[in-house]
Amino acid sequence: xxxxxxxxxxxxxxxxxYYGIEPYAHHVMHPEVKAADFAFEDLKNVDTSxxxxxxxxKVLVEANCIACHSIEKAGHLQIMSNxxxxxxxxxxxxxxxxxxRIYDKNYLANFIFDPVSAMHLSHKYPVGGAKxxxxxxxxxxxxxxxxxxxxxxxxxxxxxAGKDAHKETYAAACGRCHSMSYAKFEAxxxxxxIKAYMGATPPDLSQYxxxxxxxxxxxxxxxxxxxxxxxxMPRVGLSEKAQEEVIAYMEETGDSKKAExxxxxLWVMLYTFVFAILAYLWKRKIxxxxx
Amino acid sequence: MAEFKQAxxxxxxxxxxxxxxxxxxxxxxxxxxxxNINFLWAMGVLLTVMFTxxxxxxxxxxxxxxxxxxxxxxxxNYTIMQEVGYGWLFRHIHAVGASVVFLVIYIHMFTGIYYGxxxxxxxxxxxxxxxxxxxxxxxxxxxxxLPWGQxxxxxxxxxxxxxxxxPLIGGDLVVWIRGNFYVSDSTLTRFFMLHVLLVPLAxxxxxxxxxxxxxxxxVNNEAGEFFDFDKESEKYLAGDKKNSKVVPxxxxxxxxxxxxxxxxxxxxFYLVFFHYDFAMDPVNFDKADGxxxxxxxxxxxxxxxxxxxxxxxxxxxxxxxGKSLGLIAFAxxxxxxxxxxxxxxxxxxxxxNQRPYFxxxxxxxxxxxxxLTIFGKLPPTGANAWVGFASSITFLxxxxxxxxITRAEAKKVGGK
Lengths: 291, 416
Ligand code: HEM
Hints:
The complex is a heterodimer. By secondary structure, chain A is mostly helical. Chain A is 56% helix and 0% strand. By secondary structure, chain B is mainly α. Chain B is globular and about 70 Å long. Chains A and B meet through helix 1, helix 10 and helix 14 of A and helix 4, helix 5, helix 11 and helix 15 of B. Bound molecules: protoporphyrin IX containing FE. The site of protoporphyrin IX containing FE has 27 residues of chain B, from helix 3, helix 5, helix 6 and helix 9. Protoporphyrin IX containing FE is lined by residues 41, 43-45, 47-48, 51, 105, 108-109, 112, 115, 117-118, 122, 125-126, 129-130, 132-133, 136, 207, 210, 214, 219-220 of chain B.
């Protein structure tokens, strides 16, 4: 009994210390921010309840978008090399094949209306500032037309699932700027080009699942400014599902042994438990002779 | 030379040449340990096992680790963690083990303080133990640098910078330690050498010394009782095991240690597989960048209390800068535990709770160390800075007043 008392005292002291240096310190250094908002409720320029017309959307996209954007799924191939495209625009413009799948509908519509405000990058590209964002605002379009474009993009987006989707979403949403060297993935735009374009070098994300952790990434990708005010990283507007795919890809790359770790862990603990029980029985037997 | 007769068995052959029989008796079956002990006396064996686990897992890591600023980070986080079969397992065991070993060291140390196992003949056990503490600290610090993450780099930067505060030689000393004007490749390579060769060798030597020092004064017991080990062991050997106050190291003492070890390892492996962030700080999965200071820099948890003593003095007092005061306090904190046997002026060897004054001192010290540890991690701003200051002062005062408290205690108990 006395030994249990000692154990309880030690457990209490260790518990208090642990609480102070881990959960509590973490809470002080990383205060909780607003929960992720996958409806992008702050964006209200376009009435997204309008039903889009796919055929009209196709016409609008071909007239307005493909001068800069490739859409490989619809047969519009990229005409410049990545390096030339980066030199011309600052960053390689995204291929629009999967846009309709990975971006939230409300975000996508409002992005077309005004990219800079949707991305929360007004501090980098102020109205009338020296540097302009390469994509113009289509705020002259009617909401109906914008919704037609969105409907078209949604209609051509390929249906992918599983690990393929994880990688594809990462490449489309993050891969123009962020390399992932542990997956041998190189960003399509060079570091120097991005630095000139956005004012900061985008980090390689190979270990971000470990250094930032899922919880932080969940909030950060949804709205970077909330967690890192002033950052050059745009809000990219992924739907919740697409964001989960991105995080899954980061985990497959950065913590590829997770499943193995968890299953081996259980076996090792089970084995140790058996050892502990046997050791206890042996101890009882030995000590019964001396007590 | 003695005459050798033909050996009848392999055992005998070795026994003739190595004296196995005698050796096992001296080291194991007739090495006497008091019977009146609780599980806290298993900590020493736990530490021996942990050290072995660290050496073995470290040897595996050594096969793939690259001590070069351009390769270190990826060699750990990619090659070892993801490519090599079970590389992650060895890294997790090593990193978590290095942290948990300090938990056990602290429990072991404060067990020694609580039961007064550092005095009346046990001074050398204590000093060799403190030597182990210092060596383990050096081992922990040098090892933390090796993955070359952000916290590796910045903790190394901040801690080596501390030496710069030493008068006259400080500036040169920092450069000498780093092997460069800043923390760089030469720093990494030399700390690698320290971590895998020099410090482990010294630890092994110190463990031998520690065990040797235990031999003559004997291990203490739960009541702090002094008795005649020869008489008690004779009783045991004569068959009166129940009335003897001692038990042999093997199998009796170790059987209890294995039992404690079993449940301890269960806890340890839980941490290794499922709860390792406290030992593998997320910040350290960002590669070291000398141009990008992390928002919060803190050392590993086991250094936090002394780090806080250093930070606690943040303003000038009597014309001495806060930085110098902090450094003096820090040096004091590093050294003072060594002389504990001489600061305690009371002859009592009893559990702290049976000592009229010392018991307050002991629990006060524990509380203060916990406060220092927690505030050592928090940003030192606003009220935090003042809590740090107060708890640092308390720490110093506790040790400065200890001789007076214990002398008063000696008077009260009449020299018993
Ligand atoms: C880190 C490596 C260490 C190892 C492997 C180690 C090992 C041991 C072992 C096996 C014992 C005998 C059984 C027991 O009481 O646990 C012991 C006793 C002791 N150790 Fe350590 N020890 C270490 C560190 C320390 C430290 C850091 C201190 C304190 C400064 C310390 C102070 C003592 C004292 C005072 C005793 C005597 C306990 C008694 O007589 O009841 N040791 N150690």
